[in-house]
Amino acid sequence: MPGRVLLEEAISEAIRTGGLIGLAYRVAWLSEVCRRAGRGEEAWQHARQALDLARQHKERANEALALHQIGVIHAHADPPDVAQAEAHYQQALAEELGMRPFQAHCHRGLGMLYAATGQHEQARAELATAIALYRAMAMTFWLPQTEAALAQVEGR
User: Fold this and answer.
1) Which residues of the chain are under the pLDDT cut of 50?
2) What percentage of the chain carries pLDDT values higher than 70?
3) Structural contact between residues 22 and 59, judged by C-beta atoms closer than 8 angstroms
4) Which of 78, 97, 121, 123 counts the highest number of beta carbons within 10 A?
């Protein structure tokens, strides 16, 4: 996968040159690339590495991103690990950094998790929160997808 190779090369270069600041961000996204490619174990390893790097360098925003990514991995496991996904999404949300787009994504992730596990009331609440945040920020890419997920939960 060309994108993954480029990202791995960038990470290797950052390590080689001592440019570790922000590395957690790149490793978290490498985790997402691996997850989408069906490489769950690699995704998990990279997400944990991203979390460790963020904590080591006191990068709170990247720590929240890594926690979110770990939640995503648990939510998309087969079967989903609901407790772990929920715990990591909640931890990511607990990072009070004023990152509203990120907060919207966390609420969306929780809503999708709850919808997939039949927890319709929780799904409605989380998806509605995500929709309100997306609307307030005019995040038009994520809004229709989240509205469709809410409509499906509500049986519309």
Assistant:
1) none
2) 85
3) yes
4) 123
- Tell me, what amino acid is at 82? V
CA distance 20 to 119: 40
- Amino acid sitting at position 26: R
Q: Whole-angstrom Cα distance, residue 129 to residue 127?
A: 5
What are the DSSP E strand ranges found in the chain?
none
C-alpha torsion sign, points 39, 77, 113, 60: negative
Which of these, 53, 56, 55, lies nearest to 31 by C-alpha position? 53
Element (H, E) at 156: none
Which backbone phi and psi does 95 adopt, to 5 degrees?
A: -75, 95
In contact, 23 and 14? CB cutoff 8 Å: yes
Omega before residue 2 within 30° of 0, cis: no
Residues 6+ apart with CB under 8 A from 140: 134
Beta carbons within 8 Å of 68's beta carbon, 6+ residues apart:
88, 89, 92, 102, 105, 106, 109
CA angle 41, 88, 80 (to 5 degrees): 55
Contact between 113 and 86 under an 8 Å Cβ cutoff? The reply is yes
